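Hey team,

Sharing the MarR family transcriptional regulator run so nobody has to redo it. Sequence (149 residues) first:
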Amino acid sequence: MTAPENIGLLLSLASGQGVATANAALAPLDLNSRSYSLLELLATTDGVSQRELADALRLDPSQIVALVDGLERRTLAERRPHPSDRRQKSVVITGPGRDLYAQARERVEGSIDQLLGDLDDAERQTLRRLLQRIVSPASAEAARLGRAS
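Structure output:
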């Protein structure tokens, strides 16, 4: 069977392969691609609201609540009072969360190498730049509003 021409289908298939490969790599750590993505966002901030996490990951807020609950049960993240808004909680990564994230990152990078094995370094850089343009905040907002950026 030849690869499809439809770019939407290709993006969906590539995403599915990436998630499946990452999930297989993360399973021994009792993580999956969503919990890993959440840990990665938390590892790069000093705390972020659940709403901001939902927006960044393009998930429903109820999904974020469940993900944070799971990380909190494992002491990988915790909710703290938000520094500027008492009505919100800020989610922060813990020391054990950082340690597990470091292990998970190595596994995910290995799974990406496996997934992109047929691409050379220049092709990988091109793919990264193109994907960054697609998921940039301006592009995401334009897509949400139903117009090209």
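The chain is about 65% helix and 10% strand.

Ping me if you want the raw files.
A.
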